[in-house]
Amino acid sequence: MTIWKYVLKPICALEMPKGAQILSVHAQASSVHEDICIWALVDPTQPKEIREFAVFGTGHTVPPGANMKFLGTAMLNEGRLVFHVFEVLP
């Protein structure tokens, strides 16, 4: 088992080893900008599968009836921007 980091976009599909367990959601700063990232416990020997994620800012509209699981909240720009991360379920 290994922990991998994935950088999220507002709506994205990520290729992950099957059965990956999401561990945490946080903002991570580089010298240029901040990213919203997830870290997952993965078995690199497993076949890959596509998993979908969505990121919504506080006050943004979330699609009604969407089948999603909340994963966590990340703050950017010293807490002035707050984003909420969901996994879109099949």
Summarize the structure.
With 90 residues, the protein is an all-beta fold. The protein is globular, with a radius of gyration of 13 Å.
Task: Compile the SSE list and pairings.
Elements: E1 2-8, E2 11-17, E3 21-29, E4 34-42, E5 48-57, E6 68-76, E7 81-88
Antiparallel strand pairs: 1-4, 2-5, 3-4, 5-7, 6-7
Can you offer a commentary on this structure?
The protein is mostly beta strands. It has strands at 2-8, 11-17, 21-29, 34-42, 48-57, 68-76, 81-88. The chain has one domain (2-88). The protein is built from no helices and 7 strands. The model has no long low-confidence stretch (mean pLDDT 95).
Class by alpha and beta content: mainly beta
Helical run tally: 0
Q: From N to C, what is the helix and strand string?
A: EEEEEEE
What is the strand tally? 7
Strand content: over 45%
End-to-end separation in angstroms reads: 25 Å
**Spatial order of the strands in the main sheet?**
2-5-7-6
Extract low-pLDDT stretches: none
Share of residues in helices: under 10%
How many structural units, i.e. domains?
1
Round the mean pLDDT to the nearest integer and report it.
Answer: 95
Shape: globular
Entry keywords:
90 residues; four-stranded antiparallel sheet
